[in-house]
Amino acid sequence: MKKGLVLLSLVLVAGSLVALDISAGASSVVGSAWESYSLSGELLGMSVEGTEAHNWFTLGGKVFGDFTYGQAGVGYRVVSYGGGELTSTVDGDTTTDELDDTDAALHYITFELLGKYPFDLGGVILAPVGGLAYDLCTAYYDADGEKVDPDDIYNYDGKKVGYSYFNNLRLVLGGAVDVPFGNLYVRTQGLFSLVLSQEYMKDYERLNKDLMEAYGGENVSSSSSFTALEISVGIGYKF
């Protein structure tokens, strides 16, 4: 009886896989990202607010496997710094300073696992997608473009953390359009992502809050966010 149930389960799983359209492909990726840190509180009897914003640019590529209702991929990307802006408001008076572009950059291997629901629009396939991505940092270059030794990277608590300091866990939402040419298809995909976890960002929040409190700040609040938008274009093959 048990052997029969196991055999039946295997048959059902195999049948499900056969029913899915399985394909694989490769895409090039370009995008922009926006990193922001906010600080507010009271200092020397004055209301103080500050925002530090950074712009980043992404260039890379990825390979993907597609199974109708899901997509898994792995890619490599270079995220380069593109300047920013520092805004300070003290009792309603605001000043803004530009942050210069530098040669700072981060290199990542990225893993994606996305769910999707395809709609056939007369042969063209439109699919909303959503899921998670994990960015594994493999190299960090400072403002002068010099590669930083991972043994020289420490977190706010003084622990050696290496390049993992900049690893990201991201929530990903977006859509894809597939235009078929026989077994081949061209996939254009747009993805918006929000960083859910990065150790460096949390440490920078703590640093800003602790510095303001060290100078007598009260009711201090510190926060951060990192969002990104990327477009990928590639070719896939249906098996």
Task: Map the helices and strands.
Elements: H1 2-19, E1 22-43, E2 46-67, E3 70-90, E4 93-99, E5 105-116, E6 119-121, E7 124-141, E8 168-181, E9 184-197, H2 199-214, E10 218-238
Antiparallel strand pairs: 1-2, 1-10, 2-3, 3-4, 3-5, 5-7, 6-7, 7-8, 8-9, 9-10
Protein name: Outer membrane protein beta-barrel domain-containing protein
Keywords: Signal
Organism: Winmispira thermophila (strain ATCC 700085 / DSM 6578 / Z-1203) (Spirochaeta thermophila)
Q: What report would you give on this structure?
A:
With 239 residues, this protein is mainly beta. It has a single domain (21-238), classed as Beta Barrel (Porin), CATH 2.40.160. Helices cover 14% and strands 64% of the residues. It contains two helices and ten strands. It has helices at residues 2-19, 199-214, and strands at residues 22-43, 46-67, 70-90, 93-99, 105-116, 119-121, 124-141, 168-181, 184-197, 218-238. It has an eight-stranded antiparallel β-barrel with strand order 1-2-3-5-7-8-9-10. Keywords: Signal. It comes from Winmispira thermophila (strain ATCC 700085 / DSM 6578 / Z-1203) (Spirochaeta thermophila). Residues 1-19 form the signal peptide. This is Outer membrane protein beta-barrel domain-containing protein.
Oligomer: single chain
Reported CATH architecture: Beta Barrel
Task: Please provide the ordered H/E string of secondary-structure elements.
Answer: HEEEEEEEEEHE
CATH fold title: Porin
What fraction strand?
over 45%
Most strands sheet: 8 strands, antiparallel, barrel
- Quick one: how many beta strands? 10
Radius of gyration: 23 Å
Shape: elongated
Distance between the termini: 36 Å
The number of helical segments is 2
- Average pLDDT for all residues: 92
Helix content: 10-25%
> What's the CATH C level?
Mainly Beta
* Low-confidence spans: 1-18
The SS-based structural class is mainly beta
Domain module tally? 1
**Strand order in the largest sheet:** 1-2-3-5-7-8-9-10
Keywords: Signal
Protein name: Outer membrane protein beta-barrel domain-containing protein
Organism: Winmispira thermophila (strain ATCC 700085 / DSM 6578 / Z-1203) (Spirochaeta thermophila)
